[in-house]
Amino acid sequence: MFLKIYNYFVRGVVLFFLIIIPFTIVTNPEMIEDEVIFIFLLLYIL
User: Which of 18, 27, 42, 43 has its CA 20 to 30 A from that of 11?
Assistant: First the structure.
C-alpha cells in the first residue's frame, strides 16, 4: 500500500516539474535562475 502511494507521489512530482518548469520559462523568462535550470537538468537526467 505504501509503495503504491509513494509511486503515485513520485509520478505526480515528476509530472509537476515537467509541466511547471517549461511553462515558467516560457511565461517568465526573467525568472530563470541557476537553481531552476539546475533542478530542471537534474530531473531531465533522472
Answer: 27
